[in-house]
Amino acid sequence: MTVADTLSQPRLAPERPEDAAEADALIARAFGPGRFAKAAERLREHNRPLEGLCVVAHADGQVVGCVRQWPVLIGQRPAVFLGPIAVDEAWRHHGLGGALVKRAADAARAAGHDLILLVGDTPLFRRMGFDAAPARRIVMPGPVDQRRVQVKALKPGADDNLAGLVVVA
Ligand SMILES: CC(C)(COP(=O)(O)OP(=O)(O)OC[C@H]1O[C@@H](n2cnc3c(N)ncnc32)[C@H](O)[C@@H]1OP(=O)(O)O)[C@@H](O)C(=O)NCCC(=O)NCCS
After folding, report:
1. Residue 86 near ligand 1, beta carbon < 6 Å
2. Does 43 contact ligand 1 (Cβ within 6 A)?
3. Residue 36: pLDDT above 90?
4. Cα–Cα separations (whole angstroms), residue 22 to 13, 65, 66, 71, 93
5. Degrees (nearest 5) of the Cα angle 163, 80, 52?
6. Number of neighbouring beta carbons within 10 Å of residue 25
7. Which of 46, 54, 132, 152 could form a cystine bridge with 15, CB 3.0-4.6 A?
8. Whether domain 3-168 has CATH 3.20.20.70
9. Whose CA is nearest to atom 47 of ligand 1?
10. Where are the domains of the chain?
11. pTM of the full predicted structure?
12. How many Cα neighbours within 13 Å face the side chain of 164?
């Protein structure tokens, strides 16, 4: 039995300023210091998370999961860059990661965005509706395994003819 089996179900909500420190600590635990060297970080530094589109999961008064989203341009096309996503180790394998991505994508769609971009594990995100094939000609601002660059169209055709360098919007 894990902690997650004994406590109440996590509650998902938009990240508030008072959640930020706990979410940052969770991300630091999940990824370690190496995260700052990633190409994805180039799209987060000098950028601001999209208000209302970052999601946290609270359980028993603690932040046990989080996902953030950022405005970027792929060439000239506006898109949302998703990440990092982290779930506290005690709460993993219960569908919370998938629920966070779904909530984040729903919020992005409701806010009028039509495309989400991320760099991540292919099997994990394929199950959440992401696809590497339309992202082949997208150029991240730093070295990256191109197979991990994936997109999810929030509207039909939003992932057609994607190409170009990704920059902070
Ligand atoms: C990735 C993460 C957010 C998933 O959270 P979660 O709540 O366990 O996600 P879900 O329960 O919805 O899905 C779990 C499934 O995702 C898949 N999965 C998780 N991590 C994976 C990985 N690194 N590569 C491939 N598949 C992975 C597994 O199939 C797993 O299934 P299982 O529970 O049967 O083992 C969590 O493991 C985490 O915080 N990891 C550390 C940070 C990280 O790697 N973030 C993603 C960067 S790409």
Report:
1. yes
2. no
3. no
4. 14, 10, 9, 22, 21
5. 170
6. 13
7. 54
8. no
9. 120
10. 3-168
11. 0.93
12. 15
